[in-house]
Amino acid sequence: MTHPIRIAPSILAANFSKLGQEVRDVVDAGADWIHLDVMDGHFVPNITFGPDVIKSLRPHTQATFDCHLMIAPADPFLEAFAKAGCDIVTVHAEAGPHLHRSLQTVRSLGKKAGVSLNPATPESAIEYILDTVDLILVMTVNPGFGGQKFIAAMEEKIRRIKAMVGDRPIEIEVDGGVAPETAGIVAKAGANVLVAGSAVFKGDSVEAYRSAIEAIRAEAEKARG
Ligand SMILES: O=C(CO)[C@@H](O)[C@H](O)COP(=O)(O)O
Ligand SMILES: [Fe+2]
């Protein structure tokens, strides 16, 4: 199954003092989804924001809210993120022993269920949950911070996941170090959702956001052929 290329700017790299405006600007600039990085200072060595901030951003756009939970445990908080207005809730395979249950819970809340893999986690970790998942997020940096360098070995992992997914309607997302220079590599390997934080928000205007989003999309579409 072929999904469209989607560009999902991560607001981790946005100006936190005016997040609502940043969300509106990046959607005006052509963003398909808004990527929301939730970090707990425990699963990853950084702290960002929780459901209340997401709830306050929800009225600013109708764009899909793509929530990347870097928290452990995740299960006690799934309902809060669903109620805050997330459309996709992604948990890490490494965040708890009951991944299948976490994904079922997200779906039972009426949301799309995503699973994320750290760079060191093999794709075999998700072999038996493929029918319970709507999105696979392949981390192409170690989670916790924006602005890191794309890990080249992840290209092969994306390719293997694409093959594993087969005909299932699962979207494959990549996150970390995505820029025009790496967009073609990940799209050719099989990813269709490209998260980009610093590559988009390094600009200082809607026009700068737009040209970054367009450059990433163009490289991804060109590589797909
Ligand atoms: O989940 C994460 C980091 O843990 C990401 O979503 C980053 O926010 C991506 O930032 P860039 O690498 O694009 O700057
Ligand atoms: Fe992320």
UniProtKB/TrEMBL annotation:
Pfam families the UniProt entry points to: Ribul_P_3_epim
Gene Ontology BP terms: pentose catabolic process; pentose-phosphate shunt
UniProt-listed Enzyme Commission number(s): 5.1.3.1
UniProt keyword Isomerase, yes or no: yes
Keywords per UniProt: Carbohydrate metabolism, Cobalt, Isomerase, Manganese, Metal-binding, Zinc
Reaction equation(s) it catalyzes: D-ribulose 5-phosphate = D-xylulose 5-phosphate
Root EC class: isomerase
PROSITE patterns, sorted: RIBUL_P_3_EPIMER_1 (PS01085), RIBUL_P_3_EPIMER_2 (PS01086)
Pathway listed: Carbohydrate degradation
Bilayer-crossing regions: none
GO molecular function, one term: metal ion binding
Comment on bound cofactor: Binds 1 divalent metal cation per subunit.
Cofactor: Fe(2+); Co(2+); Mn(2+); Zn(2+)
Annotated GO CC locations: cytoplasm
Residues that bind a divalent metal cation: H35, D37, H68, D175
The keyword Cytoplasm is annotated on this UniProt entry: no
Positions that bind substrate: S10, H68, G144, F145, G146, G147, D175, G176, G177, G197, S198
Active-site residues, as the UniProt record annotates them: D37 (proton acceptor), D175 (proton donor)
Function: Catalyzes the reversible epimerization of D-ribulose 5-phosphate to D-xylulose 5-phosphate.
Family stated for the protein in its record: Belongs to the ribulose-phosphate 3-epimerase family.
Name under which the protein is recorded: Ribulose-phosphate 3-epimerase
Native organism taxonomy: Bacteria, Pseudomonadati, Pseudomonadota, Alphaproteobacteria, Hyphomicrobiales
